Amino acid sequence: QVQLVESGGGLVQAGGSLRLSCAASGNIFGLHYLGWFRQAPGKQRGLVATITSGGVTDYADSVKGRFTISRDHAKNAVYLQMNSLKPEDTAVYYCKALGPMGVYWGQGTQVTVSS
C-alpha cells in the first residue's frame, strides 16, 4: 500500500554535503514521517534524526549541528540535509514512516564519505 524510496546518496569527501530525500507513494493518507536511521557495516541500525507530527525535531548527538531533517507535506517527502560530513557518517540511510497499517521503511540509500 505504501512505498518509501530514498534518494540522494553517493560518494562525497569529508567536509562535503549531501541532501537525502524520501518520497512516499501509494496510500499515503494518514502517513507520518518519523525520521532517518542509518546502518554502517558491522553495526546495528541507529537513529539519526526524528520529526514529530507537530514538526518537533531531534538528532543523535553525533550529527547535531551538521544534519537537518525537514518535511514537505505537499510533496509527501522528508529530507535530510547533511553538512560537514565525516567518514564515520558512512552508512546506508533509511527513512521511516508510520501509517494506519503500521511502520514502513525505505530500501535505503548508500552514503560514503571518504577521508
Taking the sheet with the most strands, its summary is: 7 strands, mixed
Order of helices and strands: EEEEEEEEEEE
Number-wise, the strands total: 11
| Number of helices, counting only DSSP H or I runs of 4 residues or more | 0
Fraction of residues in H or I helices: under 10%
Q: Which structural class is indicated by helix and strand composition?
A: mainly beta
Quick check: average pLDDT?
A: 94
**What fraction of the residues are assigned to beta strands by DSSP?**
over 45%
Radius of gyration: 14 Å
> Which shape, going by the Cα principal axes?
globular
User: Which regions are unreliable across 5 or more consecutive residues at pLDDT < 50?
Assistant: none
Q: State the separation between the terminal residues, measured CA to CA.
A: 41 Å
Short description:
With 115 residues, the protein is mainly beta.
Features:
115 residues; mainly beta; four-stranded antiparallel beta sheet; 0% helix; globular
